[in-house]
Amino acid sequence: MNSPIRRSRLEVSVLRIGHRFVRDDRVTTHIALVARALGCDRIFMNEVDKSIRSTLEEIIESWGGRYFNIEIIESWKSTIKDWKNGGGKIVHLTMYGLNIDEVIDDLRNCDKLLVVVGASKVPRELYQVSDYNVAIGNQPHSEIAALAICLDRIFNGKELTRQFDDAKLRIVPSHNEKKVLKNSGE
Ligand code: SAM
């Protein structure tokens, strides 16, 4: 029996910074989808195109995860300050950081993590306010890939088999067909 996705002791949220209108719409949508699917409670992001929110809401409506919050913020600095004041730690994903293997035990021992991913160049101050500047390898690649690998390491692969209790659609894994169960909720 798979465990519901919220049972983890560790609460993880994502902060997307530096989103550029239109140009980053697709990547930001994918960041949010990865956050939801791979065990996070919430994504914070600046004002984005309305289509991003509606895409996410459609996915949540069908595939579950109504607890997953999409929070539009005005200032990343205030979000980080509030998170730290609430006892959470900041994990900034950057190719200039320490390799994740060096800090993963510390991250798993935290109660609340805010994983920050950039779009273009991130402000220098972010490196200073972060508790952990973490590299998913020290080569430039992608914020979507970096987030997915980071979450997979944090949750130790367990997030891949968790279920959303409120899902209307549920996939029955199959080696040769597309099998989906519909739950009308009645
Ligand atoms: N050149 C930019 C900079 O100086 O920050 C990086 C732009 S990169 C396309 C966008 C985001 O992807 C980064 O802010 C970071 O969060 C993430 N990223 C890219 N490669 C990474 C890596 N090797 N490790 C961790 N995060 C990475």
Walk me through the structure.
The chain is an alpha/beta fold. It has one domain: Alpha/beta knot, CATH 3.40.1280. 34% of the residues lie in helices and 22% in strands. It is built from six helices and eight strands. It has helices at residues 25-37, 50-63, 76-85, 100-108, 124-129, 143-154; strands at 11-16, 42-45, 69-72, 89-99, 112-117, 132-135, 169-171, 180-182. The strands form two sheets. A six-stranded parallel β-sheet has the order 3-2-1-5-4-6. It has a two-stranded antiparallel ribbon with strand order 7-8. Strand 4 (89-99), helix 4 and strand 5 (112-117) form a beta-alpha-beta unit. It is globular and about 50 Å long. The protein binds S-adenosylmethionine. Residues 93-95, 117-122, 135-137, 139-143, 146 line the site of S-adenosylmethionine.
Q: What order do the helices and strands follow?
A: EHEHEHEHEHEHEE
C-alpha geometry: globular
CATH topology term:
Alpha/beta knot
Main sheet: which strands, in order across? 3-2-1-5-4-6
Query: On the 0-100 scale, what is the average pLDDT?
Result: 93
Q: Can you name the CATH architecture?
A: 3-Layer(aba) Sandwich
Bound molecules: S-adenosylmethionine
The percent range for helix content is 25-40%
Radius of gyration: 17 Å
| SS-derived structural category | alpha/beta
What characterizes the major β-sheet? 6 strands, parallel
Task: Look at the structure and name the CATH superfamily.
Answer: SPOUT methyltransferase, trefoil knot domain
CATH class: Alpha Beta
Strand content: 15-25%
Please count the helical segments. Answer: 6
Residue ranges: pLDDT <50 for 5 or more in a row? 1-7
Total count of domains: 1
Distance between the ends: 23 Å
- Quantity of strands, as a count: 8
